[in-house]
């Protein structure tokens, strides 16, 4: 994108408009090189989002933003229900509450060196990954309702994990206001055999080592010590979330017209928060969030059982669990005082600043942990909500590296066997059902996560805490 | 028959790039063939459709207000049956009357070894969505699939 189209507010803040039907400006946080590389479609989509009723402050994009469905991926927008504000299925996306969680092991890299191959094999055997691999848990209708209402708290009560885990999950592992009755029969059918599964694509379970610490005090408070091993899981709400997205995108595309909302793009399908379909979507979407939280909780439990076989008595305490495709009701300071808003984060992570009351107490002085997944070769990052000198984009931050080339091109450029071998030479073991899948996810198919994280840090969205290097990668 | 051989015969499918995801495009001498080929493209996102044995039939019906939403419903129905039956489909027979579609998808249970399933489609999206009759007589049916 041409930076000259924007007003440069500061080094990393680029403002456009409002013009035409835009109710608020579009604001992109990025370094100049990242903005130049960014897809033109990001601005087009932000301009469209800025026209929606009840939008507050601006339509925001994160440094890793790219062309999405209606909303850009890496987009943040908040709506005020008191002013006709909307909720949008496209603004949340199909993989509702897709997210990342990281567990501490207390092990040194040397501790797992001798068992690395077997550990990788056992994790791959125990955690179902990829298309066609089923979960071991089957839910009947009653259990499904309980899971959709209870989230990770349900999973812990069923024996998957411990109470202490819940303290380290957004909303303590259970999103209030879920309405299982708003979840269709098809969505339920898609989930019946998918609890505790990773899925495919860019989802993974990784064993990683803390190889660089950027902020020692925060890293210490987070339990991240250089040379120690962690386990990170990236997955979402599986078939249930995908189907909720499908069902409501369609219904909202019709409802918008009925509510007199002019959509510049059908994919922006939305409805007033205070409408029948808006309320029903919120209930279903929150059930989808709970499904994702329960799913990650079960996957973590499976990883724990494997680690316990190799290291008896090990606990794997949870550092944190964050979601990056959500719409959440939050109170934010605005020019007109605090307002209750519906904040959409599509491919963006919540990043509460230090002292925010919703951060678990031991972490509160340091800011909310923000977990950023990179590609399987470049590693991942732990960040923390930035200093409270004015939170940006409703306390949001980046969620990942984003692709540099399409799957299509990756498949023609890389061979799965070569990717696996090249990573093995760098000490990274990959286990996957599909070599084609590995080729599509080749490290070189992704943008430089370090550049994205650096931009988020400089923009004051979140601050760098530690870098994680993968040792074992389990992929679908 | 490979995708490119079918192209020369005016019917076939292709994938087109889109950001993090992938577009599916089917074409043929009539709307129903274009829809069937778009579904083969959907299979190609996961695995080579020619590697799928058409052993078991699954009946699929959909109905929508226009051609474009019918394509979305059709592809979403295929995604639904792939997910819930744990199958992949290699061959599709499609009939369309007005905006009602009756189809049979032929396939088999996913075999990870043989199919090497790459990525699981989550949903058909409205991005790049088009069903149109080209001046050369071909029908095209396409959209981006979230994976």
In short:
The complex is a heterodimer of chains A (476) and B (147). Chain A has 476 residues and is α+β, with helices and mostly antiparallel strands.
Describe this protein's structure.
The complex is a heterodimer of chains A (476) and B (147). Chain A has 476 residues and is α+β, with helices and mostly antiparallel strands. Chain A contains 14 helices and 19 strands. In chain A, helix 5 (141-157) crosses helix 10, helix 7 packs antiparallel against helix 9 (238-258) and helix 9 packs antiparallel against helix 10. Chain A is globular, with a radius of gyration of 21 Å. The two termini of chain A are 34 Å apart. Chain B is globular. Chain B has helices at 3-8, 31-46, 67-85, 112-115, and strands spanning 12-18, 21-28, 56-63, 87-97, 100-109, 123-124, 130-133, 139-146. In chain B, strands 1, 2, 6, 7 and 8 form a five-stranded antiparallel β-sheet that branches. Chain B is an alpha+beta fold and 147 residues long. At the A-B interface, helix 7, helix 9, helix 11 and helix 13 of A face strand 1, helix 3 and strand 6 of B.
């Amino acid at each position: 994108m041409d930076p000259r189209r924007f007003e440069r507010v500061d080094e990393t803040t680029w403002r456009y408009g409002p013009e035409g039907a835009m109710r608020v400006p579009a604001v992109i946080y990025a370094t100049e090189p990242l903005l130049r590389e960014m897809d033109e479609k990001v601005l087009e989509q932000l301009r469209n989002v800025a026209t929606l009723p009840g939008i507050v402050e601006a339509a925001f994009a994160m440094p890793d933003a790219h062309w999405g469905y209606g909303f850009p991926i890496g987009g943040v927008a908040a709506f005020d229900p008191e002013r006709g504000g909307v909720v949008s299925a496209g603004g949340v996306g199909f993989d509702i509450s897709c997210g990342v969680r990281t567990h501490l092991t207390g092990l040194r890299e040397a501790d797992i060196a001798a068992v690395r191959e077997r550990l990788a094999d056992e994790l791959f055997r125990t955690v179902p990954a990829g298309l066609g691999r089923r979960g071991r848990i089957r839910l009947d209708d009653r259990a499904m309702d309980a899971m959709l209402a209870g989230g990770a708290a349900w999973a812990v009560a069923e024996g998957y994990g411990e109470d202490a885990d819940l303290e380290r999950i957004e909303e303590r592992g259970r999103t209030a206001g879920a309405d299982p009755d708003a979840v269709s029969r098809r969505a339920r059918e898609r989930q019946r055999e998918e609890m505790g599964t990773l899925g495919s694509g860019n989802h993974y379970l990784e064993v990683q080592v803390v190889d660089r610490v950027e902020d020692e005090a925060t890293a210490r408070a987070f339990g991240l010590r250089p040379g120690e091993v962690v386990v990170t899981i990236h997955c979402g709400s599986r078939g249930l979330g995908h189907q909720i997205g499908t069902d409501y995108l369609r219904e909202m595309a019709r409802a918008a017209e009925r509510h007199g909302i002019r959509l510049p793009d059908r994919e922006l399908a939305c409805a007033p928060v205070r409408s029948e379909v808006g309320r029903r979507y919120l209930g279903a979407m929150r059930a989808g969030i709970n499904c994702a939280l329960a799913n990650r909780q079960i996957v973590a439990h499976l990883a724990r059982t494997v680690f316990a076989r190799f290291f008896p008595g090990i606990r794997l305490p949870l550092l944190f669990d964050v979601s990056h495709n959500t719409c959440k009701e939050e109170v934010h300071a605005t020019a007109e005082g605090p307002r209750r808003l519906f904040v959409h984060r599509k491919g963006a992570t919540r990043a509460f600043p230090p002292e925010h009351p919703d951060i678990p107490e031991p972490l509160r002085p340091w800011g909310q942990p923000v977990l950023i997944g990179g590609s399987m070769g470049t590693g991942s990052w732990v960040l923390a909500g930035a200093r409270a000198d004015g939170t940006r984009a409703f306390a949001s931050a980046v969620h990942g590296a984003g692709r540099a080339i399409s799957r299509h091109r990756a498949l023609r450029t890389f061979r799965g066997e070569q990717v696996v071998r090249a990573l093995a030479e760098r000490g990274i073991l990959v286990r996957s059902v599909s070599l084609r899948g590995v080729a599509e996810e080749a490290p070189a198919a992704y943008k430089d996560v370090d550049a994205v994280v650096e931009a988020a840090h400089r923009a004051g969205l979140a601050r760098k805490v530690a870098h994680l290097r993968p040792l074992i990668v389990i992929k679908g | 028959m490979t995708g490119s051989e079918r192209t020369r015969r005016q019917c076939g499918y292709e994938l087109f790039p889109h950001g993090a995801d992938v577009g599916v495009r089917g074409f043929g001498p009539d709307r129903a063939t274009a829809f069937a080929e778009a579904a083969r493209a959907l299979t190609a996102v996961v695995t080579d459709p020619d590697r799928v044995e058409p052993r078991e039939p699954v009946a699929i019906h959909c109905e929508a207000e226009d051609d474009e939403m019918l394509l979305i419903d059709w592809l979403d129905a295929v995604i639904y049956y792939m997910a819930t039956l744990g199958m992949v489909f290699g061959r599709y027979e499609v009939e369309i009357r007005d905006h009602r579609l009756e189809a049979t998808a032929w396939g088999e249970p996913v075999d990870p070894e043989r199919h090497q399933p790459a990525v699981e489609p989550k949903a058909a999206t409205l991005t790049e969505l088009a069903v149109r009759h080209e001046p050369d007589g071909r029908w095209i049916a396409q959209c981006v699939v979230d994976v």
